[in-house]
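Sample pair:
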Amino acid sequence: MLQFIRGAVGTWIVKILFGILIASFAIWGIGDIFRGHGSATTVAEIGPVKIPASELDRQFRELLRHEFGGQLTSEQAKQMGLVDQTVSRLVDGALLDLAARDLGLKVGNTLVQYQVQRIPGYHDSQGRFEPELLLRALSANGMTEDAFDEQVREETRRRLVVQAVTSGAVAPEPMVDALFRYQKERRVAETLTLANAAMPDPPAPDDAELTRVHEDQAVRFTAPEYRSLTVGTITLDALANTIEVSDDQIKTAYEARADEFQQPERRSFQQVLVDSEEKARRIVEAARAGKNDLAAVAKAEGEPVNELGPVTETEVPEIGVSVFAIEADTIPDPFKSDLGWHVIKVTKVEPARVRTLDEVRTDVVAQLRRDRAADAMPTLINSIEDALAGGATLEEAAARFKIPLTKLDAVDATGARPDGGKVADLPDGTAILSAAFELAQGAHSPVTEGNDDNAFVVRADGITPSHLRPLAEVRDQVLAAWKTGQRAKEAEAKAKEIESQLKAGNAVDEVAKATGATLATTDPVVREPGPEAKLPADLVKALFSVAPGGVVSGATADGQIVAKLKEIVPADPHAADASLATVRETARQSLANDLLAEFFGALRTEYPVRIDQDRVQAMFANN
């Protein structure tokens, strides 16, 4: 397998997996498994490579912080399989690094910089890469620019190996045709629908029956746990409003962002778009003869004049170069684009200029304050933590550091109050509630970073445990639930009767009339219907398992449907309107995944993998 890659890697174009988010790995790192091991305890060996426990611990914590906002405990993460996922990622990365080393793959600085400049989120308002934004992010994550570049280099090298393996995956056309026929086949059915609500009222139940329902459906009649909370919120905007900036600082910030405030040349113009060169030239000649009055000539020709602008050259990509080469108030020769023949008259030119500090002062000041606030936020969070750790109450810390506190008398884990209303206007509400419902009564959370550079601290003031509401309190709800269940059973029994009659050969319309079911014919349905489908997915699946005339039934949220397959509409992959692109791509991706699995299997044979599961489990046993 490696010999195969050696022969192909030099010629295959990067096609596959190029969209992997570099930022999600590069900002917090994959880690170079070939250096920095020291004497750390080893949790895995991949051939000659040893993965230290410290690297597993680091990447596991980063996974929790960056992908789950730090809201999962280690135990919860372990139950979700995130420990095993982190180990697998480290092992796979090591295997790819070994393959890249064997191939002699090297990633130059030019490609690294190209990759860095494509990372989303680090561009100015005009789409240009802004190094300062990236440097601030690296500083906040404790990473140097050189270390970041090296991790981008490593991840790029790994992707190149993966791309070399998978780029050759091509789905054979017979496979594509067969998959298209299977996936795009449609079926039409006659349906008889019974609504649960249309079933007659059942006889009134006795108390024993209601008690049984109350107990059997206890979850339905159980009040959730409610907590009274005190929430302190530290928002970047509020902190920014407390920061004063000097005129010199404002001027320096403006100069540092000078490129951002450059306003390119903009033009307004009239355009007449026609479908023939002959007509376009006739309009031009007539307009030139009539003092360049393009609007009057176009009107005489019965053609509309479009008034466009002011626009920049890039805002009219089809014609921008031509429009911005025209002298104002003149009418040049017509030119052609994919849209047709253009006759243009530039009516106004706004020269390129730099917006002055006075024009952008509000924006510069706001951004400067936010930047200073972002720098000050970690110090503020640490100070609040120190105060709380030193014995200060949440109220005392809030008063000292001017943190607004919000009191919630009773709220459940979803943010609902006992009256059914929802808590509103709570920044990072989901994260706050998640943290609050992990606390013992009277305890407070750490000061936790939330969304949009905000932070919060929450205290559980009181806890009302979840409990089953007494039958007397929810009697009406229990009775309604019992009636709903009885009607559903009646509808199901009636649907089975209808299904038997149809299978016995009775006419669909006669059965519908005799049973009171609603008769309809479906639109053609596909094998895997979307959320907008009118038939339940299980019923559709059953329809695709029977021949024409076959009968199936199924439940909906509020009734029963019995369906008789009326017609099969085959899919033709060679029809003029057949779109095979999605099917072909799905098949190609499946083949690519198979190739990649085979490749990793070959690597594991060449470089045996040993994972010390006992040591891994011990690392997170009491974390």
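The radius of gyration is 34 Å.
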